[in-house]
Amino acid sequence: MRDVTKSRRDRLREATMLEIGQTARRILVEEGPEAVTLRAIAREMGMTAPALYRYFDSHRELLRHLVGDVFNELTEYLHRDLKRLPKGDMSGKFLVASRSFRRWSLDHRREYALLFGAPLPGLGHQEQIDFAEECAQRFGLTFLTLFLELWNMFPFPVTPEDEMIPELREQLRRYRDEALGVDLPLGVIQAFLQCWVRLQGAVSLEVFGHLEFALSDAEPMFELMLAELTPKLGLDYRPPGQSA
């Protein structure tokens, strides 16, 4: 239903910004991140490049908006799959989130490269949180929330602080206190990052074709990784398609 509280000008502006985003996404998929320029988008839309500055202040702002939109799409994709599971099925949630992340990434390789590949010029560290950073944090919270839920329901064995590598321990403490702001043992934070390094590392190797020297089908290796991780978190591994 049309929002009658918005003026016709506002609706036209929103529609144009949506079209700009869709055009940028299409160029990204067809030609790669480097091809997503204001000139290319303007040419596709029958506009002039300067006209786009009425909607985005810079090429960098446009790219970060695209990054945010893609992160939101990925997050919603994960949430849709997670909602199909019973609330207390932590084993199922962990496996579904991991497999859904891999599946989306393989189906959207160009988009994955934009989010998790080498940063494009102008997409570096931000002094202030913007739309892209908010969306990236929301995506990250999907997995962190699973860890919090799992820890609160079934605490799993973690490395004691006095057994951690001192340099790593201090970094984990800073990340927990300053970035996450959660009240968790450092061992849980370490386990969270260890799982993310393995999950995202495995997906990245497959998405970028770095396993093709040995594997024509990397799914069994991915499943082997999940089978090794789940018991460390006190979870049960289930092969794909097996119900609870």
Q: Identify low-pLDDT runs.
A: none
Q: Could you tell me the number of beta strands? A: 0
Task: Output the number of helix runs.
Answer: 10
**Fraction in beta strands:** under 5%
**Helicity, as a percent range:** 55-70%
Mean pLDDT: 90
Largest sheet: none
Alpha-carbon distance between the termini?
40 Å
Name the overall outline: globular
The helix-strand sequence is HHHHHHHHHH
- Which value, in Å, is the CA radius of gyration? 21 Å
- Structural class of the helices, strands and pairings? mainly alpha
3D structure, described in words:
- 66% of the residues lie in helices and 0% in strands.
- By secondary structure, it is mainly alpha-helical.
- The relative contact order is 0.10.
- Residues 14-74 form the HTH tetR-type domain.
- InterPro entries: Homeodomain-like_sf (IPR009057), HTH-type_TetR-like_transc_reg (IPR050109), HTH_TetR (IPR001647), MT1864/Rv1816-like_C (IPR025996), Tet_transcr_reg_TetR-rel_C_sf (IPR036271).
- It holds the Pfam family TetR_C_33.
- This is WHG domain-containing protein.
